[in-house]
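Risk register update: the risk of archive-format incompatibility is retired. Evidence:
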Amino acid sequence: MAISTKRKKYKTAEITEISRYFKEVAEAFEEDPKQILAHYQALYIAEKQKQMFDEMIVEKRKN
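Archived output:
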């Protein structure tokens, strides 16, 4: 399996800025950053699964 080279490569400064911003957001909502990240990862996974199932349904209807 080949590794995708289309992925965006972040610079260290960009990662630091994103991390700082994420920490500020977490503090503003008085939540544990890990819990917030886990919540949004779960939402992302659910959305991707929904897209996959929708595509499967469309493909099945074509046949």
